[in-house]
Amino acid sequence: MPTTPLERAVRGWLDHLRVERGMSPHTLRAYERDARRYLTYLGRAGVREPADVTEAHVTGFLAWLREGDEEHPPLAASSAARAVVAVRGWHRFLALEGDVTADVAGAVQPPTPPRRLPKAIPLDQVERLLSAASVGDTLRRCATAPCWRCCTASAPGSARPSVSTWTTSTWGSGRCACSARATRSGCYRSAATRPRR
């Protein structure tokens, strides 16, 4: 049973999330775990009432999560961000319910997890993809598509592919006759069929 004003406030917020917001038990357990850790930090800081919490307490809690202590290891940015989101939700709830005069956590931003590069596919999968590709199939897929030579022919003195104006296509043979004039609009048959930007 909640015994302190802070614990009662957290219990009211969790009940609100369960009953009125319909959050899953898994999410509620995660929020409760983050809230308990926050209450531990506030207790060590001498805070007893929700109205006594300041923005400095919220930012201090975030720093504590990232640094850790003798009982808690440091959290990764993603885990600390989840905890700060829970704390922000609790303070917003208290402000909307009128239990406090201001949302002291509203300006505290959760840490941004570092961006990760996409994983490369294995070499054997690359080889299978390349061996399955067929330029002929691509040419016959659409009568109004530019040919492979159009989009890959290099301009003189340039390492980048040039894009030429497509003038005609022979559907049955998969051959395409292109002019040498390069355009920035892409390959097109006429003004009426130019691709839209």
What does this structure look like?
The structure is a single chain. Helices cover 46% and strands 8% of the residues. The protein has 197 residues and is mainly alpha-helical. It has 2 domains: 5-97, DNA polymerase, domain 1; 134-193, no CATH class. The protein has a two-stranded antiparallel ribbon. Strand 1 and strand 2 (175-182) form a beta hairpin. The radius of gyration is 30 Å and the shape is elongated. The model is unreliable at 138-149, 151-156 and 158-195 (pLDDT under 50).
Defining traits:
single chain; 197 residues; mainly alpha; DNA polymerase, domain 1; 2 domains; 46% helix; 8% strand; elongated; disordered C terminus
Q: Total helix count?
A: 7
Please give the order of strands in the largest beta sheet.
1-2
Distance between the termini: 62 Å
Proportion in β-strands: 5-15%
Could you tell me the number of beta strands? 2
The CATH class label of the largest domain is: Mainly Alpha
- And the CATH topology of the largest domain? DNA polymerase, domain 1
In total, the number of domains comes to 2
**H and E order:** HHHHHHHEE
**Main sheet attributes: strand count, strand direction, barrel closure:** 2 strands, antiparallel
What is the radius of gyration computed over CA atoms, rounded to a whole number of angstroms?
30 Å
Question: Which overall shape is indicated by the principal axes computed on the Cα atoms?
Answer: elongated
Low-confidence stretches: 138-149, 151-156, 158-195
Structural class of the helices, strands and pairings? Answer: mainly alpha
CATH architecture of the largest domain: Orthogonal Bundle
Mean pLDDT: 74
Helix content: 40-55%
Organism: Barrientosiimonas endolithica
Domain Core-binding (CB): 4-95
Protein name: Core-binding (CB) domain-containing protein
Keywords: DNA-binding
